[in-house]
Amino acid sequence: MAIAVDVPRQYAQLFIGGSWIAPHSGRMISSIDPASEEVWALVAEADEVDVDRAVAAAREALRGPWARLTPTARGALLHKLGALITRDARTLAEIESRDNGKPLRDTIGEMQRAADWLTFYAGAADKIYGETIPYKPDAHAFTRREPVGVVGAILPWNSPMSLYAWKLGPALACGCTVVLKPAELTPVSAMELAKLVTEAGFPPGVVNVVPGYGHIAGAAIAAHPNVNKITFTGEHRTAQEIMKSAAVNLKRISFECGGKSPHIIFADADLDRAATVATHGAFRSTGQSCSLGSRLFVQRAVYDVVVDMLVQRAGRIRVGMPLDPTTHIGPQTSAVQLDKTNRYIQLGKDEGYRLLLGGKRPAGFERGYFVEPTIFGEVDNRSRLAQEEIFGPVLSVIPFDSEAEAVAMANDVVYGLVAGLWTRDIGRAHRVAAQLESGLVSVNTYRPVHWMLPYGGYKMSGIGRENGFDAVNEYLETKTVVIDYAEAPPPDPFAD
Questions:
Q1: How far apart are CA 127 and CA 115, in angstroms?
Q2: Catalytic (active-site) positions
Q3: Percentage of the chain with pLDDT > 90?
Q4: pTM (predicted TM-score)
Q5: Which of 24, 308, 447, 492, CA to CA, is 20 to 30 A from 203?
């Protein structure tokens, strides 16, 4: 069913303690449709008072009805939530496309993947075990895995629903409760998710949704003394500020931050396949992904051939309206992000790099935050174009000669989230993968993100891991219990 947009959709209340509550300030956030530059939704804005209410509700649920549920029952609720997302996938996908400009063909897939993530963690909920430790013969020593407590989840705007599932899945499976703050640019799908949380039957306060601005609501969550953990996806400078605030009570933290990912094509690779995947890996989501292969290293012997392939393939990318099912990439999510991308494109031109494709607003789009897929060739790896995260559809192609040179340039960046390489040489595949400073290295594919595969970064790309059972550990405390049952009294160390 198509979404009516004659007047802005309104979500005038926050979701706190299982109820819809008017925001303390009475203010609303305007969500801009990036394809039309018009306000398409109004969402309640949370402030510090609302965050305090949400944390209190989460704390009450943590100690009350949620704690009394068995792990299997928690898993059943997660499974139900995933099923409801699948049921409403089309409507949720249209909402997400209107909110952040991602094409419908992508957002429909992201709704199903969100459901898959929740289903995976639904199965994990009753498989969280402690261990028995053979400490000594006359004692029983064991560990308990207990929820870390109230989790503050601070989310970005590029893939909202997917990342809600990344956070909620392991947090709820472990028995934590959550205060979720969606990005102010894309808050609408979070409000719809709150409705599904209620329909699924979660106890009040287990999930709370407080849209708001980072410097107000996000900062209040990070500094709140009754929040036990922060999980954040976003820019590393924001993570640094959160880390400072989290020190108030030594919160547990997990950060998934930016990237400037190296993607390496050796001369012995399947060039046709490599060029196809590299094109998608650079321009998917209009370049608005921290895992993009935005630095493409191509061995000099095949450099010209690969560049021709890239230009040909990227030239076929259809830029269009998000709800058009034939669109490959839509607009950038905001005017600020478009301005940033355009500044980097101008920088590439000013520094004299060869503009191979794009670099301007596509024809026929007078409104909206649109920009063409852009490729620069012969880029210097130390340039700002190659070192700084653009978060737009801009690819830097960099030639190299030797394996050692490729590895050195790939690692010569402050980030370390994702890396990829293409080769038919199995020895080289293992050698290079072992040397790349990235949390995820893919060989003859790119960015295989999956609920079973741990995902996270080295260096400025983050702390901790999302996905897989590694993510479960991010939401648990380990308690050691020792029960001594020795019959003989212990010796008195203070006796004469």
A1: 19
A2: 256, 290
A3: 96
A4: 0.95
A5: 24
